[in-house]
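Side project, low priority. Logging it here so it doesn't get lost.
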Amino acid sequence: MREVVIIEGVRSAVGRRKGQFADQRPDELAALVLEELVSRAGVDKSEVEDIILGCVSQAGEQGGNIARTASLIAGFPDYVPGVTIDRQCGSSQQAVHFGAQAILAGDMDIVIAGGVESMTRVPMFSNMQGAALSEKLTDQYEIINQGLSAERIAKKWGFTRQQLDAFAVQSHERAQHAIGAGHYKREIIPIRTQGPDGETRMIDEDEGPRPGTTEEVLAGLKTAFDEKGVITAGNASQMSDGASAVLLMSTDKAKELGLKPKARIVARVVVGSDPTLMLTGPIAATKKVLAKAGLEISEMDRYEVNEAFAPVPLAWLHDIGGDPEKLNVNGGAIALGHPLGATGTKLLVSLLHELERTDGRYGLLAICEGMGMANATIIEKL
């Protein structure tokens, strides 16, 4: 029986919108990650059979199939193809699933899966060009802003503003501790950028975490979507820039090349969920992927559930019965940022390195997605 393993995983640091990567083209940023990935793995670019990248706003510098353009910039042979996919916030996680499926089917042996997003240079929704939703959709479903969806989740699960702000503060504290302790050093590739003033800098640290973030500070922020609500910029994910990727391979190919895999993919699922609540999909996806793997949540050593908004992981914890001490232990998107198309493999890379650091066995990744969907993946460290 064929098996899919992860040979290597890397990412860029994550920059705030209009921050440290403001002058970095996303196709060139993705190319740097692709190049470093195969270099670290010791695999020749010519052996890669496909490059699948997630990207949500496929317009401007992210248009024209950025997986293909980035691979050519990175010096991959012209016969190595690339494809760009959009499953909203889980796009690069879905890229991993598609790559794994191609390997399991026997169509390929070596696939790169990853993602990229510059929310600075290609603003969110720019690919929509101001288009309205079809009435044939809105006649069937109440489609609302994700922030309002988060408000409804908070109300349905009974989360207070104080609970959400406390979770956000914890995200910042955990992220700052992880950065200070060097937990992210191995997974982040240093990237040299040049600003408009010609000054060159090396970027090797996530920009999002804010020292001095306290519940008192967050309590002073205005709500962002509902005057009487609980969601603010402080307990929601940050808009960000970044890129990430993993190298997938069949076990047999890894043995043939003399490579030592870091982990194997145990199970992967994707589900649809209520398009109005929109962000609750990780709950159903987690239940499904655990059942598929024949494992219990108690057997997971670490889990990453994307912090799109604080109510999302909190509702997940409540319904799944997870251990809060295993969830997003080095901070999440509230502190570290959420570069849409890159987030799936960014979190997978961090999960992989965290299992290595702590000698854990199983890790679970789940991400909510626009219009009501979610991916979930379980990996086992080898």
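Brief comment: The longest strand covers residues 240-250.
Revisit when time allows.
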